[in-house]
Amino acid sequence: MRAKNGKQYIERLKKANNNVYVNGERVKDVTEHPAFKNVVQSMARLYDLQYEKPEKMLYTSPTTGEKVGKTFMVPTTIDELIERREAMMEWQTTTHGLMGRSPDYLNADVMVMGPAAEFFAEGDPAFAENARKYSEYARENDLSLTHTLIHPQVNRAKAVSEQKDANVALHLVKKTSEGIIVDGIRLLATQGAITDEILVFPSTVKKSGEKDDPYSLAFAIPNNTPGLKFLSREPFVVNDNPFDHPLSSRFEEGDCIVSFENVLVPWERVFILEDSSVCNRYFRETNAVVHMAHQVVIKDIAKTEFLLGVVLLLMESIGIDGFQHVQDKGTEIMLTLETMKSHLYRAEYNAKLDKWGVMTPDYDALDAARNWYPRIYPRLAEIVRILGASGLMGIPTYKDFENEEIGPILHRAMQGKNVEGFERVQLFRLAWDLTMSAFGSRQTHYEYYFFGDPVRMGMAYFEKFDKEPYKQRVREYLNDLNVKKPHYVKA
Ligand SMILES: Cc1cc2nc3c(=O)[nH]c(=O)nc-3n(C[C@H](O)[C@H](O)[C@H](O)COP(=O)(O)OP(=O)(O)OC[C@H]3O[C@@H](n4cnc5c(N)ncnc54)[C@H](O)[C@@H]3O)c2cc1C
Question: What's the predicted TM-score (pTM) here?
Answer without folding.
Answer: 0.97
